[in-house]
Amino acid sequence: LPGQSIKAIKNVTINEPFFQGHFPNQPVMPGMLILEALAQTGGVLVSKSLDGPLGDRIFMFTGVEKAKFRKPVIPGDQLLLHCFDFKRRMALCKMRAEASVAGVIVAEAELSAAVVDGAALS
Questions:
Q1: Given pLDDT bands bounded at 50, 70 and 90, which one contains residue 86?
Q2: Which of 4, 16, 22, 75 is catalytic?
Q3: Active site residue 22
Q4: Chain centre to alpha carbon of residue 26
Q5: Partner of 19 for a Cys bridge, out of 27, 71, 109, 113, CB 3.0 to 4.6 A?
Q6: Per-residue model confidence as pLDDT tens digits over 95-106
Q7: Which residues, 6 or more positions from 44, have their beta carbon under 8 angstroms from its beta carbon?
């Protein structure tokens, strides 16, 4: 639903630099990078939920809860990133996030974020 959920796609290829050391002869996408992809997807959802442009405000990822990694993600996989059950109260946002490959959930978490005035960070 517009403003309440978002889906994005990440094509996982062997030429990703992290595969060189994670792990030799057994390439697996690091779980933290799957979470980062979900957080970036959620960031787009947050920015689209705002009244007007982001302007000088900054989207800040503030937390992750109940993260679970269910299956490894390997080169050739296509990650479907889905953020949903979006709730916003003032500057605070929460959402559920799932990453799946071929219809199978490979990772999930609850994400939180805040939209803050960039000048307040200096």
A1: very high
A2: 22
A3: yes
A4: 24
A5: 27
A6: 999 999 999 999
A7: 6, 8
